[in-house]
Write a structure and sequence with these properties.
The chain has 11 helices and 2 strands; from the N terminus they run E-H-E-H-H-H-H-H-H-H-H-H-H. By secondary structure, it is mostly helical. A two-stranded antiparallel sheet has the order 1-2. Helix 3 runs antiparallel to helix 4, helix 6 crosses helix 11 and helix 8 packs antiparallel against helix 9.
């Protein structure tokens, strides 16, 4: 979990960059999340799909509420429902999830057209609604597809992403800047990747382990700024989106490459 950067005066950095904070039970909740995700992996791909569909749905709802609180209303019920639907359909197949994404875009536009008291263009309101659910839903679809392809690959990804989050949190909380945490997280990923490559865990050989581990190291740090861009501000209270942020870019890229690798 991360919080808005307050250690820099740059408006751009302040808008997108995050540094860890120690207020609240973030550490304990992170451990709980990891245990729940491992339990879902033990139960199988359906449990993983349901877990990440629920996570994406709540993330979309919270982001929508944050936009409303900032004075830019959208259609939060549509956002939460579409994210949940897309995520759940991914358990059946990615084609159905893709169709649901198209349907969700249409429904978002219709909801904007019929919204009572609308004071802005349909495209602005509908675009904001789509903005809240699309990226989390795509991440959920990608994670579910990975679990369907190989549950061991999902576990490896979970461990690597969690390793990044632990390093980022433990070092970032005491750092004076915004880069120390991500650097520590990247270092943790490489340590875990070394272990994976030596023992050839999951479906990967040694060379593939370094490729996929390197992707996590490169893309996980970009998740927090992306999540910040989806919200109205860096200080928006969107804890479920923050829980998902490290997966937002990693999961889709892993899914595409894993599909080809296992083929």
């Amino acid at each position: 979990m991360t919080a808005p950067a307050s250690r820099t005066s740059s408006p751009t950095v302040h808008r997108y960059a995050y540094v860890p904070v120690v207020d609240g039970p973030h550490g304990r909740l992170g451990v709980l999340w990891f245990l729940v995700a491992i339990g879902a992996a033990f139960l199988g791909e359906v449990a993983v799909g349901v877990l990440f569909a629920a996570l994406a749905s709540v993330a979309a709802l919270q982001t929508s509420v944050a936009w409303r609180q900032a004075g830019f209303p959208d259609d939060r019920i549509v956002a939460g429902a579409i994210a949940l639907l897309v995520g759940l359909l991914a358990v059946v197949g990615t084609a159905l999830a893709g169709a649901a994404i198209v349907l969700g875009a249409v429904v978002s536009v219709v909801a904007a057209v019929v919204a009572p008291g609308r004071r802005e263009a349909v495209t602005a309101r509908a675009g904001r609604t789509i903005r809240t659910w699309l990226v989390p839903a795509v991440a959920a679809v990608a994670v579910t597809a990975i679990a369907r392809l190989d549950i061991g690959a999902f576990v490896i990804l979970l461990v690597l992403v969690s390793g990044y989050e632990v390093g980022d949190y433990l070092v970032g909380t005491g750092a004076n800047g915004i880069v120390e945490g991500p650097i520590a997280g990247i270092a943790a990923v490489f340590v875990l990747t070394f272990t994976e490559a030596v023992f050839q865990l999951g479906p990967f050989d040694s060379r593939a382990a370094w490729v996929y581990g390197g992707l996590v190291a490169a893309l996980a740090p970009l998740g927090a700024p992306l999540a910040s861009a989806l919200a109205p501000s860096a200080s928006a209270k969107v804890p479920f989106l923050r829980r998902l942020d490290a997966w937002l870019l990693v999961a889709p890229v892993w899914c595409i490459l894993l599909w080809d690798y296992l083929s």
